[in-house]
Amino acid sequence: MALWKRDWTPEQINERSAGSLSAHLGIRVTRITEDAVHGEMPVDHRTAQPFGLLHGGASVVLSETLGSIASIMTLPDGQIAVGLEVNANHLAGVPKGQIVTAICRPLHTGRRTQVWQTEIRRADGKLACVSRLTTAVVEGDVA
User: Fold this and answer.
1) Which of 11, 52, 70, 120 has most Cβ atoms within 10 angstroms of its Cβ?
2) Is 64 a catalytic residue?
3) Does domain 22-139 sit in CATH 2.60.20.10?
4) One of 34, 40, 64, 139 is an active-site residue; which one?
5) Phi-psi bin for 52: left (phi > 0), alpha (psi -120 to 50), beta?
6) CA–CA separation, 132 vs 45, rounded Å?
């Protein structure tokens, strides 16, 4: 059985995100594969901490953005996903001027809860952050 129940394209998702926090930070969905949502985010004045490195909070926003999109894409019309908990382990610094890439994959896609893991990598491929998002599946429609 296919993972995705909604046939959204990266272009549709990015257009829908206009005016949101993720768009303000430059987050873009770049690809949707059979089992993952891929994205990217620049490390610039919007996403860096005062010492010129990627801010941990920006990494968490990237993770929650991709995980929320992925979670909702697994659900039929009439259901949505809302975040319950997100955590992140920051493993390597990323200097300003780079673009980080991220891959979000499911760890658990249950009827009531889901868990998504996002790996965020530097331009050289080194793992910069690993984050997990837990969502609750609730009744509702995508606004």
Assistant:
1) 120
2) yes
3) no
4) 64
5) left
6) 25
